[in-house]
Amino acid sequence: xxxxxxxxxxxxxxxxxxxxxxxxxxxxxxxxxxxxxxxxxxxxxxxxxxxxxxxxxxxxxxxxxxxxxxxxxxxxxxxxxxxxxxxxxxxxxxxxxxxxxxxx
Length: 104
Ligand code: FES
Hints:
The protein is mainly beta.
């Protein structure tokens, strides 16, 4: 529990939030009431902000070259070498909490 930190206030369904913690940018998406958090640097070039990607269901599409990442697993449609870092999330007292990576 102590390895979770407060990322911010809860956001409405369909909205997104980008935060920075410990030098890492993390994008958080509320998909149908479930929070998903992903390291906000596309694994393809390490620079593109996934925050500005297109969200379709539980998949985020990178705004640069269109690679897609599963927000539940980090898996990329272009192969396992491009897996994104996904974080545990929880909601508590109107706040979004981010935990350790699920798949690091
Ligand atoms: S930088 Fe994201 S797909 Fe190329």
